[in-house]
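note to self — DONT lose this again. spent like an hour looking for the file last time. sequence + predicted structure for the chain T wanted, 385 res
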Amino acid sequence: MKFLIFEMKTVCYNSYLYFGDALGTALEAKGHSVEYFKIDEDNLDDLEKFVGMSYDALIDFNSDLPRALMDDDSFFIDHINAPFFDVILDHPLYHHDTLKNKLNNFHVICLDSKHKDYIKKYYPHIQSIAVTPMTGELAFGQDSINWDSYNERPYDILLSGTYTDPTRIETAIKKLPDFLAQNVHELIDMMLADSTLTIEDAVEQLARNEIYDYINSDLPLHTQTFYLADTYVRCINRKNLVQNLDKCSHNFHIFGALWEELDLKHAQIHREIPFNLTFTVFSKAKISVNIMPNFKAGSHDRVFSAQLNGAVSLTDPTTLLQQEYSNGENILFYELDNMENIPSLVDGNLDDLDKLKKIAQSGYSIAKSNHTWANIADILLSEIN
């Protein structure tokens, strides 16, 4: 098969570029041909050279290409003879302006089965929707995990990611019209009171209680409008997580931007690093901490990237992870509603490194079997076939 992979964005620590390269490498390893368009290497005007060409699939990540128009207002993607696969890395509400466009051959890969249900319900023109989390790989220069040196890993507790002060989101909410700001605050209260609630479920509950008929109007448009509720809850949860990790008695390292804005007593803050270098950091950690971006039935790539580099993944659970993993055997789960228990959970496990190493080894085995780029390539090939 012949593939064209677009790498159109250099944001999020260059993670999109890594995902495109990693998927392409996995497809090539299976004997397929892969061509790339890379925004950091190619000129945007060069996209026109693909008009009239044929591929077995076009692939982009969090794509804006479905919005690109030709001079006659037809969709650019429709002028390439191939199914278009948009890999959605966030909740689909953030991509409404892309997903609403009715391309001739539009397909989506998303990270969460609830996201799949949402897309299927509100964007029926999308012809197929597959679910797979993204992943990482073994740190560059390493051929295998040196389990004998696990106890000497320098980072007891590791977290990678960016800090956003919730007050910044509060400021944005205050700029909304009063009725909309009130609705956003209602959604925030609902989601903080029930950590199992998705943003779309919260919006539907709100719609049933409001005079304005959200449900029979354009509900996905309104859900997009309420993105600040989802963003705020994510920021509050991440802040609470880190503040509780900061109470642990073992060393705690953070890699990412803006953490100096949060008053932490013990954490050692490191500057942000490109996405592909996080694998080296994971390979030096005993426990790698993840918090889901409000995913309830999928996973973030941090979970598997950490496991593939020999770290124990500590994360809030999702239905996907609970189906594959057992708490305390191959993963560690904490509950969003009980984050005050995190210090005792983390310190207790770090006080028994022999047990912790067994958890790391078991988690590595599952990730190595089920969550590699070869697995993701197989899912894409299955969708095409």
